[in-house]
Write a structure and sequence with these properties.
Structural class: mainly alpha
Distance between the termini: 13 Å
Number of strands: 2
Number of helices: 3
Helix content: 40-55%
Strand order of the largest sheet: 1-2
Order of helices and strands: HHHEE
Radius of gyration: 15 Å
Strand content: 5-15%
Mean pLDDT: 76
Largest sheet: 2 strands, antiparallel
Length: 85
């Protein structure tokens, strides 16, 4: 699983929460864009799932070190590539 940069993820969460708290219809499109960004960063389909993923990433047992993602070729094991933070 690819884990987003914590600073970028925090910025996206802060932006979404600020726009959601506004309540003005003028921020509807920026709010949708912020929700989309959160979903892309967390690999989810809804804001609710994205926020749950953010809570999981912030949990004490979350690892922010080496990670792997599935790829079609190459890597340290068949179908995997290693990412180093």
């Amino acid at each position: 699983m690819i884990v987003p940069n914590p600073a970028v993820l925090q910025q996206a969460v802060d932006r979404y929460l600020a726009l959601a708290a506004d309540g003005d219809m003028a921020v509807a499109v920026p709010l949708q864009n912020a929700a989309y960004t959160l979903c892309v960063l967390t690999g989810t389909r809804t804001v609710e799932e994205a926020m749950a993923a953010v809570r999981l990433l912030d949990s004490p047992g979350a690892s922010h070190g080496r990670r792997t993602f599935t790829a079609s070729s190459g890597g340290s094991a068949p179908g995997e590539r290693e990412l180093v933070s």
